[in-house]
Write a structure and sequence with these properties.
There is one protein chain. By secondary structure, this protein is mostly helical. The chain has a domain of 80 residues: Four Helix Bundle (Hemerythrin (Met), subunit A). 69% of the residues lie in helices and 0% in strands. The chain contains six helices and no strands. The chain starts with a helix and ends in a 14-residue tail after the last helix. The mean pLDDT is 77.
């Protein structure tokens, strides 16, 4: 085993351990901290795949911005046993069913992987340009320019929708017919 494989397996074990900590943690703050560590381990996998741009974006966007936002929201909500919602049996059943379906999809994907589907092996040790920023930008603005622009319009409309839904009813000016 070479050093790259050892680092890969150590990152795999750490990622699975932290992800298990996210699920099993009873405290929401420690669960969020485990999730941040999971994102750092995933960024390590990106570095091993020579995708430095994705690693940095994952750390900045997910581990940095979004997880800090989650952490502040959980801390500001000040959850305790009095404000905890009541357990709903129907929601628990829906969670078990959706988890079972996810398990079936994972088993099917692993089965198709093991059944002899050949995958292209990329030798990352001898320098490829697959994950570099220059290659990503070239592909994004040549071959994938239309999906990129569609995604940007979709994100813009989602932001406008979030602002409209987030406004209070008193902020929306409505006209009422007084004569009726």
């Amino acid at each position: 085993m070479d050093l790259q494989q050892i680092v890969f397996w150590v990152l795999c074990i750490m990622t699975l351990g932290f992800a298990t900590g996210v699920i099993l943690s009873r405290n929401p703050i420690t669960s969020i901290l485990f999730l941040i560590m999971t994102f750092f381990c995933i960024s390590g996998h990106y570095v091993l795949m020579n995708a430095q741009f994705l690693a940095i974006v994952n750390i900045i966007v997910y581990a940095g911005a979004i997880m800090v936002l989650f952490l502040f929201v959980v801390m500001l909500m000040n959850l305790n046993a009095d404000t905890e919602p009541q357990k709903n049996t129907l929601l628990q059943l829906a969670a078990v069913v959706s988890g079972g379906i996810l398990l079936l999809v994972l088993i099917a994907s692993f089965k198709s992987l093991i059944s002899g589907v050949e995958t292209k092996q990329i030798d990352l040790a001898h320098g490829t340009n697959v994950g570099l920023i220059k290659e990503l930008g070239t592909l994004l603005f040549t071959k994938y320019v239309f999906p990129f622009e569609v995604a940007s319009v979709l994100f813009l409309s989602a932001m406008v929708g979030a602002v409209v839904l987030g406004k209070k009813d008193s902020d929306i000016v409505t006209t009422v017919d007084i004569d009726s």
